From TrEMBL:
Originating species: Caballeronia sordidicola (Burkholderia sordidicola)
Record keywords, A-Z: Oxidoreductase
Protein name per Swiss-Prot or TrEMBL: Aldehyde dehydrogenase
InterPro entries, per database record: Ald_DH/histidinol_DH, Ald_DH_C, Ald_DH_CS_CYS, Ald_DH_CS_GLU, Ald_DH_N, Aldehyde_DH_dom
Family membership noted in the UniProt record: Belongs to the aldehyde dehydrogenase family.
Length: 502
């Protein structure tokens, strides 16, 4: 089980996992992964190509159609998922440290995530043997009709760099419980933890080919996976542009897709809200995870009568945020994960200034000593933002908040819905009627009331409009990895007129 060894230069050397074997890329090429805090390379990974994608899909196809996985009872699949959950519990600290080193998110956040991952496998492992069809009271005489739900086949999971393991598990847990096999292609920026997870799959006893992990760049190994004729489903988390390309490619073969894409979520504060709680909710919505989250509450809508007071409170609170080493539990804001994203965030800050937004806090790259060599952007707050500004319409994916005024419920709903995206929203109010009724007016997939940025394996996650297609988590997720078959059995004594539809 030699997944990583020390390379000559002192870097960890990882290998791909295909068909139950640890292997280099077919041509032997590798690439480096960098710690976003130190900006030092710490590991090398195989640079997969089309031939590696082919090997992985063939292994997954063999496991689905003829391996022990294909003959395994649903309850046995569930037990394997439970066994995997126990191994993740054992290695949660190790997995969290690798995530922090690879993507720069806070150890407090990543340890919470790795500690929560086992619950996904336990939940869906429990559902594995509860996928039930139905006997239908059909309106045809002398006919018995029933339905079954069957796995799709080979699934490809392609994940983003901001929460690598969580995003992978969102796909693997329901898909495996349903009986599918997988090829996982993690982001080239954050591939190490996926290979560490594959190590636990092997230890848990999953048959060869059920999970395969290939690493490399999207155009070189991701695209061949998406385009492969034997792939039945793609689950993707990432940018709107990437989702669009995958959707177009999948359409050529009528593949199933789940797309979890971007957002420009409105976090809406009404005058009757508990302002202390709402300030914390606004901070959580945009500065947690350095704003690198699809559900970021990057548009803060505040009612006119409290706008100035609320923004003042918000600026004062955000000013105290501790930046620095993400492996230090006292740190509250870590580095930006990738150089291209760092440049993009700074570019959008410049766009906001040019559009006339008022920078109340931050607005620059951080040069604080505690930030070291990392790519840090100061927590940034813009006030007097109009919803037609680019800073309010386009996803920044960083610690940049746009504060927008509104007069009443109607205007708040209109501004919130005036977006190409529809992933999430927050509502802060002490009015019970508003808490129950206002979410109905929001064209988004998730609404938090008097809270923000909460997720559960038991509740569906996904968006409207350009925020994606399909749902992850909850019962909805396992349905995304199943197809329905209708079976008709005639009990008639003789076949009626063959020229007339029955």
């Amino acid at each position: 089980m030699n997944t990583a060894t020390k390379a000559a230069a002192g870097l960890e050397r990882y290998r791909m996992y295909i068909g139950g074997e640890w292997t280099d890329a077919a041509d032997g090429e590798t690439f480096e992964t960098t710690d976003p805090y130190t900006m030092q390379a710490w590991a090398t990974l195989p640079r997969g190509r089309k031939v590696d994608a082919e090997r992985a899909v063939q292994a997954a196809d063999k496991a689905f159609n003829s391996g022990p996985w294909s003959a395994m009872k649903a309850s046995a699949r569930g037990l394997l998922l439970h066994r995997l959950a126990d191994l993740i519990v054992r290695d949660a600290d190790k997995l969290a440290r690798i995530e922090v080193r690879d993507n720069g998110k806070l150890i407090t956040e990543m340890r919470a995530q790795t500690g929560y991952l086992p619950e996904y496998f336990r939940y869906f492992g429990g559902l594995a043997d509860k996928i039930e069809g139905a006997v239908l009271p059909i309106d045809k005489s002398d006919t018995f009709n029933y339905t079954t739900h069957e796995p799709l086949g080979v699934c490809v999971a392609i994940t983003a760099w901001n929460s690598p393991l969580l995003l992978a598990v969102n796909k693997l847990a329901p898909g495996l419980a349903a009986g599918n096999t997988f090829v996982l292609k993690p982001s080239e920026y954050t591939s190490a933890s996926a290979l560490e997870l594959a190590k636990l799959f092997e230890e848990a006893g999953f048959p060869p080919g059920v999970l395969n992990v290939v690493t490399g760049y999207g155009a070189e190994v991701g695209a061949p996976l998406v385009e492969h004729k034997k792939v039945a489903k793609i689950g993707f988390t990432g940018s709107e542009f990437g989702g669009q390309k995958i959707y177009e490619a999948a359409a050529r073969d009528f593949k199933h897709v789940t797309l979890e894409l971007g957002g420009k979520s409105a976090n809406i504060v009404f005058a009757d809200a508990n302002l202390d709680d709402a300030v914390k909710g606004a901070i959580s919505g945009i500065f947690a995870a350095t704003g690198q989250t699809c559900v970021a509450g990057s548009r803060l809508l505040v009612q006119d009568s409290i706008y100035d007071e609320f923004v003042d409170r918000l600026v004062a609170f955000a000013r105290s945020a501790r930046m620095g080493d993400p492996s230090d539990r006292a740190t509250q804001v870590g580095p930006v994960t990738t150089p291209p994203q760092y440049e993009k965030i700074l570019e959008y800050i410049g766009i906001a200034r040019n559009e006339g937004a008022q920078c109340r806090l931050g607005g620059n790259a951080s040069t604080r000593p505690e930030c070291g060599a990392g790519l840090f952007v100061e927590p940034t707050i813009f006030s007097e933002v109009r919803n037609d500004m680019r800073i309010a319409q386009e996803e920044v994916f960083g610690p940049v908040l746009s504060c927008i005024r509104f007069k009443d419920d109607d205007e708040a709903a209109a501004i919130a819905n005036d977006s190409l995206y529809g992933l999430a929203a927050g509502v802060w109010t002490s009015d019970l009627r508003r808490a129950l009724e206002f979410p109905k007016r929001l064209k988004v997939g998730m609404v938090w009331v008097n809270m923000y940025r909460a997720v559960s394996y038991m509740s569906p996650f996904g968006g409207y409009k350009r925020s994606g297609i399909g749902r992850e988590n909850g019962m909805d997720a396992i349905r995304e990895y199943l197809q329905t078959k209708s079976v008709w059995i005639s009990t008639a004594k003789e076949t009626p007129d063959p020229f007339v539809i029955r």
